[in-house]
UniProtKB/TrEMBL annotation:
<feature type="domain" description="DUF1330">
    <location>
        <begin position="2"/>
        <end position="95"/>
    </location>
</feature>
<dbReference type="InterPro" id="IPR010753">
    <property type="entry name" value="DUF1330"/>
</dbReference>
<protein>
    <submittedName>
        <fullName>Uncharacterized conserved protein, DUF1330 family</fullName>
    </submittedName>
</protein>
<dbReference type="InterPro" id="IPR011008">
    <property type="entry name" value="Dimeric_a/b-barrel"/>
</dbReference>
<dbReference type="Pfam" id="PF07045">
    <property type="entry name" value="DUF1330"/>
</dbReference>
């Protein structure tokens, strides 16, 4: 069943963002992931959002594929960049077929 990955990112070093994106996009593609949404035109319907955090929603064929992407050697350099250039949260959300 499909698994979704929600990335919540606040960039603290903009100079590192392009390199992170390049690595991240390559790794997502390698594991068959798809970009479903980014926050280019996000809008808070409830609560508040000051626009300082970015959101990306990915889809993978399974939770195992999502974990394999996250733990891969391909994505490892991206995680190193993220540790020094971002405040972020990465969450796996199993598709409904995984939990029903």
């Amino acid at each position: 069943m499909t698994a979704y990955v929600l990335l919540e990112i606040e960039v603290t070093d903009m100079s590192a963002l392009a390199e992170y994106r390049e690595i991240g996009q390559k790794a997502v593609a390698e594991f068959g992931g798809d970009y479903l949404a980014v926050n280019a035109k996000a809008e808070a319907l409830e609560g508040s959002w000051d626009g300082t955090k970015g959101y990306t929603l990915l889809a993978f064929d399974s939770v195992e594929k999502a974990r394999a992407w996250h733990d891969s050697d391909t994505y490892a350099p991206g995680k190193e960049i993220a540790e020094r250039a971002m405040i972020r949260r990465v969450t796996i959300l199993p598709g409904l077929g995984e939990i029903v």
